[in-house]
Design brief:
Elements: E1 2-4, H1 7-15, E2 20-24, H2 27-37, E3 47-50, E4 62-67, H3 78-91, E5 92-100, H4 105-110, E6 115-119, E7 123-132, E8 137-148, E9 151-162, H5 166-173
């Protein structure tokens, strides 16, 4: 079995015959992933669990855990991140692999004050980033405008990511 959080990777591994467990804290994201997985044959469909990383409970061990999309940065508290790492270790088979990506402190610092824009005919998205050097947290707010007929619907989100150092991550993983 494998544990993955990235939908495309999850589907590809399922197609190759791996048992896949998808974990996310967002019920909306799990619903979307489940809808996409419905196109797979029943025996290739992943199992989906709605859990936070620090409360991971897989009911068995896995050969690998892949944590994508800078999810580790979204844990902004050291004790919570240490617990998440401990939970992954609990469910990894001996010799198993834990693969994750992060936004580095340098990248998050460089985002400070930046504004990003993406637009299509029916969607307009703008987001702004602010980095706090004291807390090492980069906060970025999204404003998303989606066309609904002749009108536009506005939605927004606030994301926060912690700039973990390599030394911190290596120490806690050991």
């Amino acid at each position: 079995k494998k544990l993955f959080s990235d939908e495309a990777l999850r589907q590809e591994l399922a197609r190759r015959g791996y048992g896949v467990v998808g974990v996310d804290l967002s019920e909306d994201m799990l619903m979307e992933a489940s809808e996409k997985a419905a196109a797979l044959p029943q025996e290739q469909r992943p199992t989906f669990l709605c859990q936070s990383m620090d409360e991971l409970d897989l009911f068995g061990t896995v050969d690998a855990c892949v944590c994508c999309l800078d999810s580790v940065n979204y844990i902004t508290d050291a004790a919570t991140l240490k617990e998440a790492f401990r939970r992954v270790h609990t469910f990894l088979m001996p010799g198993g692999r834990f693969i994750f990506d992060i936004n580095t402190p340098e990248k998050l610092k460089a985002m400070d004050g930046q504004t990003y824009l993406d637009e299509t005919e029916d969607v307009y998205c703008v987001w702004r980033a602010d980095y706090d050097a004291r807390s090492r947290i980069c906060a970025y707010g999204f404003d998303l405008f989606e066309r609904e007929g002749e009108l536009w619907h506005r939605d927004g989100e606030l994301h926060e990511e912690k700039a973990w150092t390599r030394e911190e991550l290596e120490r806690w993983l050991r």
